[in-house]
Amino acid sequence: MRDGLKPGLIKEIDALRVSGEGNSPISEKVITDEELTIKIDGRVAARLTYLPSEPELLGWGFLVSGGWISSAEEVKTFRLGRNILNVELREPKDGELASILSSCGKEVALRAKNQPEEKDHDGPGKIPVVPGSFLAGDVFSAMAEFQKTDVLHGETGGTHSAGIARGGVLLFNFPDVGRHNAVQKVLGRMLVDKVPASDKVLFTTGRISSEMVTACAELSIPVIVSKSAPMSSALDRARERGVTVIGFARGRRMTCYTFPERLKIESLSG
Prior knowledge:
- By secondary structure, this protein is of the alpha/beta class.
- 24% of the residues lie in helices and 34% in strands.
- It has helices spanning 55-65, 136-148, 151-156, 179-193, 210-218, 232-241; strands at 10-19, 22-31, 34-40, 43-50, 75-81, 84-89, 95-97, 110-112, 134-135, 160-166, 169-176, 201-204, 223-226, 244-250, 253-256, 263-264.
- Helix 1 packs across helix 4 (179-193), helix 4 packs parallel to helix 5 and helix 5 runs parallel beside helix 6 (232-241).
- Residues 99-103 and 116-121 have low confidence and may be disordered.
């Protein structure tokens, strides 16, 4: 299932292919990108280079992952113009520069102040770990479906993607030029549609960062999976917040770095 796609996301340009066998003119597909400015209570909170599709969801995802809100009801007004999103909160918050909220491309970002970056291992904000609550086979099945839907990357090599699955079935997914942007679009969809999170798995094509883990924890998504690697700070954050981190999920193999007891490891042969 492909969500959030519209015409005009790919441009075809003339290029020259150079190789040891000679040079040849070719037509190449290139992904389209634009800049989205997000203003919160009149102040610029972010300038994101993004795939020009589903900017509303990107905005909602930015708000929740940046600690500005935990529900859509906390927003008084949400107005999208041409490449600018104006948000007014019901209860204004101060922001501070946070370079960790980075995506591919040019960005200035603010994070809401006084958002706890670390939690006690057994303290508030940690997702309960229920042993055997997710089937390893379901993770493999959903990852296979997720990779099949990553059409824009297959055509251009210029995007990341993120998606949400339940019980081995991919529910929805979004591409973007930045891995954090793609995740934020997924989070935005979950926030707006009030999708229950406790039985969901978040998939990403990019490296797993601490910001992604924090965002999962804020929405109570217990498992995050990537075909790539996690960063050490992501694993530290996952242990603090009770998130299962899985990397290098390819074919019928994966590496579980935190809380492997969440997985029920049934027979994986065949």
